[in-house]
Amino acid sequence: MSPLPDCQTLLLELHGGVLHITLNRPDSRNAMSLQMVAELRAVLAAIRDDRTVRALVLSGAGGHFCAGGDIKDMANARAQGADAYRELNRVFGALLEQAQHTPQVLICVLQGAVLGGGFGLACVSDVAISDHKAQFGLPETGLGLIPAQIAPFVVQRIGLTETRRLALTAARFDGAEAQRLGLVHFVEQDAQALAERLDEVLQQVLRCAPEANAATKALLLASAGQPSSELLDEAAQWFSAAVTGEEGIEGTLAFMQKRKPRWAI
């Protein structure tokens, strides 16, 4: 296989045909920085055509999966203007598209924060296993922003009606509710049960032929219809307008200052 790229924000462990990818920025609850996005995309590209890699297991270090986008990257983009915000936003959509279409079976193990971009990653998994205490949500509107790149994948995963409720209330919910919504397939009570469920799923995946799985996954995705690149391009423009607008400025500033934004009652 092609050598795996060197990563500073990811831990990579390959054995038995399974590549374990751990998001490794625990101090920020594994917030998705531009560097992490680039490294994840490089890993997915490196193994895309390698059928000796049968499954990918994506998890997070430090008890959290992913708390969303990195506010520091947004602060850096502010000095560069609207185009920088659009590009910052769009690159995450490109990651979601790439992860959605990776030929390997993508399994997400979800603990702690599964918010924003982390929620999006869960929505492009083939199999999602959650701790019952995991906290899911789309917090963007509470920050004066929009879930621009994530929304089409969430709608595809759980349907328009529930996505409208979650995106327009920024409501948080646990693993049991995530299972009810169809976001996750399994909910477990502790770390040992999560590990046992993961082993069971991997045993099932490894009984399937890798080329057949890759072709079947492509067929299923094509049958369901896909979030389009054109829509995601337009959504990135909307995100840029939101983040540079009055609400986006107030919402992100309030987040960094650990206070409620002006509109919050």
Major sheet: arrangement of strands: 1-2-3-4-6-9
Number of beta-strand segments: 9
Strand pairing plus helix content: what structural class? alpha/beta
Runs in which pLDDT lies below 50 for 5 or more consecutive residues are: none
CATH topology tier name of the domain at 10-189: 2-enoyl-CoA Hydratase, Chain A, domain 1
What is the CATH superfamily of the domain at 10-189?
2-enoyl-CoA Hydratase, Chain A, domain 1
Tell me roughly what share of residues is in helical segments: 40-55%
The first-to-last residue Cα distance is 55 Å
Question: H/E order of the elements?
Answer: EEHEHHEEHEEHHEHEHHHH
CATH class of the domain at 10-189: Alpha Beta
- Report the radius of gyration as a whole number of Å: 18 Å
Number of helices: 11
Which percent range describes the beta-strand content?
15-25%
Task: Report the biggest beta sheet as strand number plus sense, adding barrel if it closes.
Answer: 6 strands, mixed
> What is the CATH-assigned architecture of the domain at 10-189?
Alpha-Beta Complex
User: Could you tell me the mean pLDDT?
Assistant: 93
SSE map:
Elements: E1 10-15, E2 18-23, H1 34-47, E3 55-60, H2 71-78, H3 82-100, E4 105-110, E5 113-115, H4 117-123, E6 127-131, E7 135-137, H5 151-158, H6 160-169, E8 172-173, H7 175-181, E9 186-188, H8 191-205, H9 210-224, H10 229-244, H11 246-256
Helix pairs in contact: 1-3, 2-3, 3-10, 5-6
InterPro entries: ClpP/crotonase-like_dom_sf, Enoyl-CoA_hydra/iso, Enoyl-CoA_hydra_C, Enoyl-CoA_Hydratase/Isomerase
Protein name: Enoyl-CoA hydratase-related protein
Family: Belongs to the enoyl-CoA hydratase/isomerase family.
